[in-house]
Amino acid sequence: MADKMDVDAVNGEKQEESVGPAPDLPPERIITNNFALINQAVDNFDSRFTLRALRSIATLRKASNFPDALIAGIRTAYPKASNRGRQILEELLPEKHQQNGTSASAGKETQEEQTHPEIWAYLGVLVQVYLHDQGEFEKGAEFSENFVERIRSWNRRTLDQIGAKAYFYYALFHENLDPKPPSKQSPVIDTRPKLLAALRSAVLRKDTDTQAAVTVLLLRNYISTADITQADLLVAQTQFPMTASNNQVCRYLYYLGRIRAIQLAYTQAHEHLESATRKSPTTGPAIGFYQQATKLLIVVELLMGDIPDRSLFRQPALEAALYPYFKLVQAVRVGDLQAFLKCASVNEPQFRKDGTYTLILRLRQNVIKTGVRMLSLSYSRISLRDICTRLGVDSEESAEYITAKAIRDGVIEASLDHQNGHMVTVPQKDAYSTTEPSEAFHARISALLGMRDDCVMAMRYPMNKHRQEIAEAAKARERERELAKEIIEGEGDADDGDDGGFEGM
Amino acid sequence: MAENEAKHIVQQLDSLKANQLTQAPQLLSRAKLALLNLNALVPSEDTPPTHLALASGILERGALISIKLKDTDSFTRYYQQLQPFYSLNNRSQNQSKVTGLYLLLLLSVGDYAGFHTVLEGLELSAGKEQIEKDQFIQYPVRLEQALMEGSYDKVWGETKRERVPSEEFGVFSEVLIDTIRSEIASCSERAYPSLPISNAKNLLFLDSEGAVIQFAQARGWVAKDGRIYFPQQEEEALAAEKDVMSNSDVVIENTLGYARKLETIV
User: What Pfam family is a match, any one (chain B) (predicted)?
Assistant: First the structure.
């Protein structure tokens, strides 16, 4: 799962790569270019430049000489070897790269300027990425611990985006330390106070990037050790920032969906998971997230008594990953209890890995319900004994209670005759004589209108543009007034009966 | 000092007879005071293992005694206090019993969300094999499955004395029977147009026909000529609600809403 999340993290940057620096630049050039971007971000107080700098991490980490480039970058930013920041970062990189690095930046010793902390933080994130890719989780965890603390103590708004990334790797490192999450002794539990503190400061500082990132990390943390109640409380007590980036929103919705599914609130779970799958990118490195969310969505949909669309399983990106779920859906669709149990036990390791096994076990009752519905649709009158054998239930009494419950829950329209021991199906009513079609229509229209409103709200308007417009409008009015004045002056001697009319313009 | 006192109280608790249970809460609060003196009521990293075992032992006894006294609130409190001990990974003998009882408690008050949340946590932390061979956990799991699919006769069978894994679990049988009875009643209302009283007796697991009539009156059913007739209004009311003609104002309101939205868009 860790890899999936990691992959997902990279993805956002990947998508818009064309906007970032051209991929064929050597990595050290990309890093130094990014310094310029970050400086620009600090000077203009515009986070977009920082985001653009962070976007190139995906390209950088794949470069073969990434460590060399990183060293070169550090030396460019901090030409003095005695600089504390430089020393901290360099200590984490292997010796041999340091030799190479010296030659690369030898000529730049002369320039000396005050570097922004953002540059250091950016390099710190790159070091985190490097350590993670090398599998040096211990070292990374230790470094991240101090690193995030440092970032927090700076309290600079231009650091927020970098800080959010830093926390992400901080949590990731701890997750990879032994003993791994489901265990209650996992180091992830020790990271909770720190993450909560980070959340608190982020909220107080209106730092939405870190707030969103840390909320998601905390949820992930709680869910990984199955502390669902705590996760639920966190959701209830905090507000997820509206302006969070799409990737964070996706993850937040996914975890929320997971919590709600465990709590049996399937309708809400379905809503969250559906938005998560729709918002998540369907191609590229984030495909793992998409698959995972879709798996959970399918199970929740089944639990709600719906059957997912066949076309869902035909998508090339999902076909192989969803095969066990496809079999599962088939079993549930026909209400075949035996096939369902077989499918669940054959694919158990896979389902467990996906964390959907306990949810799938709950499907048993749905399979039975579907079975009852199929019987009720096909027969207008059927004896309880037949129901019992077809559903594979133990006794006739059970069958009677089960059908009675199905009738009560509105799964089927039927009535039972206890003395003769059979179920009589009530003929279907005409749905068009009820308000149901208009309700469905209304739901669709509202969804579309809501989407339009969201689109309008999501548009980005340039800052202070309206002031400019106001100034222009004022100027135009001024001109008009002058014009009017001239006209009045011109006409003044002829007739001044209606000069008041111009005032209003 | 405090340790000896706590051990002494444990002995006293174990030697209590069934009719002396009312004294237990006092003993328990003294035991908890002793634990506080030992600084072991809430476990920390440097609590010695012997103290941990002592503390969880006392709390577990407290939980089981609360169940016997039918004091569910205090049971829940003990259960919550035990959680930090259980997460420290030294399994004590009564852990699954207490957890199973807590699951059953959640089930009997109808908190299915809480039930599944606890179960999910168990699956992850204890692993599948552990849970599947544990009769104390399996019992509530089986009950929940039967309740959810509607095999009420299975629930009835499970609550019989000989099927219950330990005497503490028997306390919940009564509550569970009440739960299933009201479930069956609400199902019957919708499923049968009418029902002979003798059949209703079997369906509802009641002892006599007199009890059936009493039950029927409590639920507002009509009993005459040896049959029970269920009231039908509910369904008709629902049908009327769905009728197009009766709520034309909603349709008008919606259409006006669309018109207004269209105006803002175009």
Answer: CSN8_PSD8_EIF3K
Tokens describing residue B141: 């799991």
pTM: 0.75
Could you report the predicted ipTM of this complex, rounded to two decimals? Answer: 0.74
DSSP A214-252: HHHHHHHHHHHTT-HHHHHHHHHH----TT--HHHHHHH
* Torsion, Cα of A492, A493, A496, A499 (10° steps): -10
E strand or H helix at A140: helix A137-154
| Closest CA of chain B from A407, distance in Å | 6
List Cα–Cα distances, A497 to A395, A486, A492, B15, B171, in angstroms: 101, 16, 9, 113, 99
Decide if B183 and A405 are in contact by the 8 Å CB cutoff. Answer: yes
Please give the Cα distance from B11 to B16 (Å, whole number): 9
DSSP state letters, B124-185:
HHH-HHHHHT-HHHHHHHHHHHHHHHT-HHHHHHHTSGGGSSSHHHHHHHHHHHHHHHHHHH
- ∠B1-B6-B8 over CA atoms, to 5°? 95
As a whole number of Å, the CA-based R_g of chain B is 26
Pairwise CA distance, residues B9 & B30, whole Å: 8
Per the CB < 8 Å rule, is A227 touching B121? yes
Q: What angle do CA B207, B210, B214 make, to 5 degrees?
A: 105
A406-460 residue pLDDT tens: 888 877 888 888 888 888 887 777 777 777 788 889 999 999 999 998 888 888 7
